[in-house]
Input
Amino acid sequence: MFKELTTERLLLKNIDYNDVQFMYEQFSNDFVNKYLFDMEPLKSIEEAQGIIRFYLKSKPSLQHRWIIIQKENNQKIGTCGFHCWNKKTGVIEIGYDLQEDYAKQGYMSEAMEKMIEFAKTELQVKQIDANIYVDNQASISLVKKFGFKKTGEKFEHLYNKDHLHHIYSITLI
Output
């Protein structure tokens, strides 16, 4: 169901166990974790293996993660994917992260465009939601660029504190 995707500059490669070191580096990075309040930064390779195991073992496939790779040099620069897919209602959540050195260069816009197209044409998703921490202006700007509108809010609880997130949604059908 989930397949590798390509854009002009990127390969969105299906996550696998060869990505353990990258996942550890990605999700133990302060820049990447700045606005992630659904889990603590990774502290071990074993935790990275657990994340990969989660994406590979989930049946039915209600979530998926791609590794974002620059085509020109095969450099892994981030991840993106879907989770919390409710097949009955046709609603899925989107998530993404990018290393600091590659921010503000249009890479996530390329990946986002391809993911939205895939969700609409291959998964027949009716709505995509993005749960974004209120101070994450780059992410808010990204989803607004694609027509997402604020539809609600929720709190993520981490570090003994509630963190307000806005929910942005786009209807595809």
In short: The longest strand covers residues 76-86. The beta strands are 5-6, 10-14, 64-70, 76-86, 91-98, 127-133, 149-158, 161-171.
